[in-house]
Amino acid sequence: MVDAASPFETVMRPGLPPPAAGRWSGFPAHNFVGGHNAPEALLPDTLMQALKTAIDREGLDLATYNLRSGPQGYEPLRAFVTGHLAKVAGMRVTADELLVTSGSLQGMDLINAALLQPGDTVLIEEVNYGGVLTRLARLGVEAVPVRVDGSGMCMASLGTELEKLSARGVQPKYIYTIPTVQNPSATVLSEARRREMLALAKQYQTVIFEDDCYADLVFAETRPPAIHALDDDGRVVYLGSFSKSIAPALRVGYVAAPWPLLSQLIALKTDAGTGALEQLMLAEYCPRHFENHIANLLPILKGKLAVLTSALEEHFGTAAEFAEPEGGIFLWVKLPEAVDTTVLAKAGEGIGISVNPGREWSVASDAGQFIRICYANPDHETIRSGVAGLADVCFETFGVPKRGGNVERFAGAQ
Amino acid sequence: MVDAASPFETVMRPGLPPPAAGRWSGFPAHNFVGGHNAPEALLPDTLMQALKTAIDREGLDLATYNLRSGPQGYEPLRAFVTGHLAKVAGMRVTADELLVTSGSLQGMDLINAALLQPGDTVLIEEVNYGGVLTRLARLGVEAVPVRVDGSGMCMASLGTELEKLSARGVQPKYIYTIPTVQNPSATVLSEARRREMLALAKQYQTVIFEDDCYADLVFAETRPPAIHALDDDGRVVYLGSFSKSIAPALRVGYVAAPWPLLSQLIALKTDAGTGALEQLMLAEYCPRHFENHIANLLPILKGKLAVLTSALEEHFGTAAEFAEPEGGIFLWVKLPEAVDTTVLAKAGEGIGISVNPGREWSVASDAGQFIRICYANPDHETIRSGVAGLADVCFETFGVPKRGGNVERFAGAQ
Question: Is the whole-model pTM more than 0.80?
Answer without folding.
Answer: yes
